[in-house]
L-threonate dehydrogenase
Amino acid sequence: MQEAEKIAVIGLGSMGWGAAVSLLRASFRVTGCDVRPDVLQRLEDAGGTPCRTASEAAKDAAAVFIYVVNSAQAEEVLLGQGGALETADPGTVFMLCTTMAPSATVSLADRLEAAGMLVIDAPVSGGHLKAMSGEITVMASGSEAAFAKAQTALDAVSAKVFRLGDKPGTGSQVKMINQLLAGVHIAATAEAMTLAAKTGIDLQTLYDVLRVSAGSSWMFENRGEHIIAGDYAPRSAVDIFVKDLGIVTAEAARNGATTPLASIALDLFKEASAAGLGREDDAAVAKILAKKSGVSLPGMEGQA
């Protein structure tokens, strides 16, 4: 019997963990790397192989998923000491799932390809629950050879893979636009829920009405529930959108585009981060608006 293919997942946050679980469910051999010992223990309990370094995880892997937070971390786990490139075999497919500026993605891809690797620019969307069920959306660009080798692993973690071009960079461009909308929609959700609370509307009733009305969005349906429940456990943290909307506004300025809504949303996320909410769920930006409006949302009772 042929041995199952080995896949590495570097970074086991909410999305990376979902990818690892989905790959295990599809009968891949999964190695994983993360800085948190408790997460590595969870991976071992789930049937994967925990690794202390990216180089250990990538050894003999057919494909490597990169799910770290930002481009600096991606560069470190790929090219730094103990990075995946130290042990990866030529022809290994690296799937860059981290949300990065397109220019950063292209730079990393160029260096990986120069070392004989295959690269797919593969940022993802869909949230923690879809990651856990293997139903994320992948916004992918890369060579035909890379897709051919990684297709079964991509199928295991996703419901839809959009192939957007034959070179890395396009996937990151599309993800950047997705994050513009996502960040603005979260900020708008926070504003709407705060205004409702201030004017005395029951938040659950409002949610039930709006989620089936024209003003709804995926982010309103998802983050609105968090605000109603006062549940700010981080699925995607405030600081993620400080980073992602920072990419949006910087790339817009570089290209001569105007993004006023993204800029306003970015200021709100920055304010929330400065107030100590950076590691809370990104819906916590509602707390900033609530305090300014003199209203207490669920989960804010007793907070200064």
In short: Residues 173-293 form a domain with the N-(1-d-carboxylethyl)-l-norvaline Dehydrogenase; domain 2 fold (CATH 1.10.1040.10). Strands lie at 6-10, 29-33, 49-51, 63-66, 93-96, 118-121, 124-125, 136-142, 158-163. The CA atoms of residues 198 and 295 lie 6 Å apart. The longest helix spans residues 170-198.
